[in-house]
Amino acid sequence: MTYVVTQSCCADASCVIACPVNCIHPAPGEPGFTTAEMLYVDANSCVGCGACATACPVEAIKPDSTLTPDEQPFLAINAEYYECFPHQPRPPLAIVPQQRRLAHQGSFRVAVIGAGPAGLYTADDLLTHPEISVDVYDRLPTPYGLVRAGVAPDHQHTKAVEKLFRQIEEQPSFRYFLGVDVGRDVSLAELEEHYDAVVYTVGASADRQLGIPGEDLVGSMSATDLVGWYNGHPDKQDLLVDLGTERVVVVGNGNVALDVARILTADPVALEVTDIAALPWAALSRSRVREVVVLGRRGPAEAAFTVPELVGLCGLAEAGVIDVVVRAGPGGDLDAVDGDDIRTRLLKDLAARPRTPGRRTVVLRFLTAPVRLLGDDRVTGIEVTGTRLEQGADGRAVAVPTGETEVIETGLVLRAVGYRGLPVTDLPYDEVTGVVPHDRGRVRPGLYVAGWVKRGPTGFIGSNKGCAQETVARILDDLDSGATTGRDADEEAIVALVSGRSPQVLGLDGWRAIDAEERRRGERRGRPRAKLVEVSEMLRVAHSARGVDVKRPGVTPPPGERAGSTSPPRRGYPSVTRLRRGLQRRG
User: What span, in angstroms and rounded, lies between the C-alpha atoms of 117 and 424?
Assistant: First the structure.
């Protein structure tokens, strides 16, 4: 028996460290780990002990004997990686560098703005240093960012990373200030009076525009807005989504585009047992949508979606849930597309499958670009042109219009061509890149960035781990040099400031109360949770829960566990931190 990785990497690396024969790659320290789409188990070296599956915080590793039919392609995907990258010879364990210790004595406080994956990974790395305490701020009463409001509701396995986040937020030196809008309720200057460092991890809040005529018509909208709508984001619940059209066109072919295509063609009965928001589910259950066309300017090999996402779509086609049609350009045939990469092979397999009349369908169209949206007061169609690939000056394949056009009738066009960061109050901004200018995460001593606000909207959930580590290294440099000293020593002053500005502020207890209520309501309906989608209701639930201290959000460590303590290690460290320390003791 061998074990198989079946989804994108969360970058926790517990599985790599737990493996006694070092058969999971790329490993930390190896080229490609921080940018890896997923990790891979070498079947020839795996001894079937199951240590990796036990260590994985998101349940992504399974024995080959338990793979479902739609997961079977991961066997070949894992094996193919080692045909290209043998990773020989192998040491008995992954090499983990000695953890850095702060040279400058004292206790330090760091504020992290944004409670999504980037923010929590940053907090996690900071908290491996017992001298540092971390306060995490978010404008919403709920944390986890795009894991809560961006991951598709039918991908509950991806949301299992919440288990790792819970371990991070349960550390004694961690504290939440939820429901606080930094830049409105409190300023950066005020935070800098109370913290040794401030890290912004606020993400990229806008979607990119298509830049074509008709884009402002009714029936043209952002796919990311739609994702927020069906995931229960409080800001998107008033979105008007007309699902009275039989065909929807999605421009762009990244993971968001495939998520939207799956949800719009899903069986409402299957969606009912997920954590999809209630009113969007009701709208989807009455939807007339029968076909979703996903447009990509370039070919299959250049597609922006990940292999795990494509495998999931293949599984739905294999199970007869939906049909998947694959085309290349207006009237084009995928057989004319060259390429022996894994994406092209999977797509050609999909293209060869027979179709079932009347079944909901996802059409993946490559070498096709939008020209304009048609309609007077609302969208009635989209004009597209075929493209061909040419090599650009940088060596990348560039899509060049062929001039052959076609009109696709549709009443709803969703743009899914990426996110773009907007200016953040009190921070510098690069208009060209849409990010905050920085040096490896340092904007200036005392002010830092991590996540999409730092690197742009690229990567996966796990990509934030390496990004956070780079930023934390700069923070440690400045703490050691004394470049960030001078804050107010009164630890409770920040609590008084924030509580005065935002009386409804929530801490960890408030979030736990919301989480428990959502799970309780969901359990009654056979769902993982029934999301609260109105901020007022979230606050009511949080403040009515017994034991929630509104004036002191979070937990202050008892004296024996404050910075500089020699007491035993604190309970609640993430698994990767415990394993890393154990590994260092062993050698």
Answer: 19
Print the domain residue range for 252.
Answer: 208-417
Assign 3-state DSSP to the chain and report helix, strand, coil percentages, each to 5. 35, 20, 50
Separation CA 324–CA 265 (nearest Å): 11
Contact 150, 236 (CB under 8 A): no
What does the alpha-carbon distance between residue 582 and residue 585 come to, in Å, rounded to a whole number?
5
What single string gives the DSSP state of each residue in 19-71?
Answer: -TT--EESPTTSTTTTT-S--EE-TTT-----HHHHH-TT--EEEGGG--GGG
- Check: CB of residue 76 under 8 Å from CB of residue 314: no
The H-or-E segment that residue 264 falls in is: helix 255-265
Residue-wise over 482-505: b if at least 16 C-beta within 10 A, else e?
A: eebeebeeeeeebbebbbeebebb
Of 355, 296, 293, 304, residue with least CA distance to 328: 296
Highest mean pLDDT among 35-49, 166-180, 458-472: 166-180
Which residues pair with residue 293 across a beta bridge? 249, 363
pLDDT in tens, 199-220: 999 976 778 899 999 999 999 9
Report if residue 372 sits inside a domain.
yes
Cα gap 500→480, rounded to integer Å: 33
d(CA 297, CA 386): 8
Domain shared by 149 and 33, yes or no: no
- DSSP code, position 558: P
Query: Taking Cα atoms as reference points, which of 32, 30, 34 lies closest to residue 11?
Result: 34
What is the rounded CA–CA span in Å between residue 292 and residue 246?
9
d(CA 505, CA 552): 9
Please tell me the pTM assigned to this model.
Answer: 0.81
Decide if 531 is inside a domain.
Answer: no
First to last CA, the chain: 30
Residues 195 and 216 in one domain: no
